[in-house]
Amino acid sequence: MWQKLKEYGGGFVKVRMTGYSPERFLNLCAARQIRLWSVEADKAGYTFYAELKDYRRVRPLVRKAGVHLKIQGKYGLPFFLHRSRKRKLWAAGAGAFVLLLFVLSRFIWNISVEGNLRFTDDTLLHYLDTLDVGYGCRKSQVDCASLEESIRGAFPEIIWVSARVSGTRLLIHLKENDGVASLPVKDESPRDLAAGEAGTITRMVVRQGKAQVEPGDVVEPGQVLISGSVPIISDDGEVVNVQYVHGDGDIYARTEKTYTSPVSKLVACRTRTGTVRHGLRLRVLFWEVFFPPPVSGDLSWEMVSETTQVCLLEAFYLPVWIERVTAREYSRSERPRTQEELEALAEGVQTRKSETFLKKGVPIIENDVRILDKGTSYEIQAHFVVEEQIGIGQKLEQKEEFLTADERNRDYH
User: Fold this and answer.
1) How far is residue 298 from each of residues 171, 234, 332, measured CA to CA in Å?
2) What is the pTM of this model?
C-alpha cells in the first residue's frame, strides 16, 4: 500500500528497452539499487516500470550496455499536475476542498461513550449539551480534565471517567459503581404492621411487637397484624404502662389476584404489495436531501434505514451522514381474531404474570386463565392464588398517659 502511494506521489514511467545487451543493463541497475518492476521480455526487447527519480539515473548505464530506452507511459502525481496546470478551476476546487477539511478538523463531529450501563447515551449526551460540549463544538473549548470532573460530580454512580479528543472524535470511557452507594438508614420509629391486602394467614414470625392474629385468620386490608404497643403488666394483672416499639415480623398469607387484559376482536393486518423502493438520504450539517423523494398515495410504506457517518481516517469524522433507506409498500386490512391467537394471548398473559411472581420469590398455589366474550371485544382474566408477605408499616399514635418519663419531661420543656 505505502509502496504504491510512494510510486504515485513521486511519479513513474513505463519504458520500452531494445538494444545489444539488455541483460547487462538489468544487472547494472540491480548493482546500483535502481528498482525496476513488472519486467517482461518479448522477441523485440523488454518492457518495465521505473520510478521517475530512478529513470533519471540510468543514462550512464544506457551507454555502457548499448541499449535504447523509450518512454511509453507517464503516471503519477507530478505528471497529473503538469497536465492539469491550465485547469485553474480544478486547482481552485482542490484547494477549497483541502481548506474545508482543515476547517472541519477544528471541530468535534463524533462523540463516543463506552462503559455506560446504568445511564443511556442520550442521557450523557444531553448532559454534555448543558456544558456546551456537543456535535459541532470547537476542539479548543473541550477541556478533558474539567469534563471528567463534571461528569463524576453530576453522576455519583460513575466512579471513573476518561475523556480524550482524537481527530474530530471525542472519546469518553467510564466505569460505573456496581455496589450500593450508601446504606439505607434503618427506621426504628414506633409503628404497627398492618395488612396490605385481604387474605388468610398461613404462617408468621414476630420479631418485635405483639401479634394480633394467628395462622388461619382471615384479615382485611388495613387490619393490624403486629401491634407496636406492648403493654407492661404489673403483678396484679393491671396495665401500668405501654412500651411503643417498631412492629416487625414476617406475615405470610394466602391471597387471590386477578388480572384482566382487553383484546379486540379484529386484528390489523399488513399485506405487502411486493413494491420495493430504495432511497438515499444525505445529511450535511443541518441540511438534508432525500433521493428519490418520499412517495404519497393511498397505500402505506414501511421503511428500514441504515445510517453511516463519513469517516476519512480512523478518527477523522465529517459532519456528513449517508442513510440508505429501503421502503416496502403495504396495504392495511382487518380480520377476525382466531381462537388459536386468543389462546396464545391468554397463555402469554399467564406466563408474564407467573414470571413476575417467580422473580419476587412468591410461590404460586393455583392459577388459571379464562377468555370472556364482552360483545365488542374479548377480555382475558388471569387468576392466581399465591402465598406472599402482606405486612406494611403503619404509623403508631402514642397515647399521652403511656408516654415514658423522658418523653414527658422533653415535651414539658
Assistant:
1) 46, 88, 10
2) 0.53
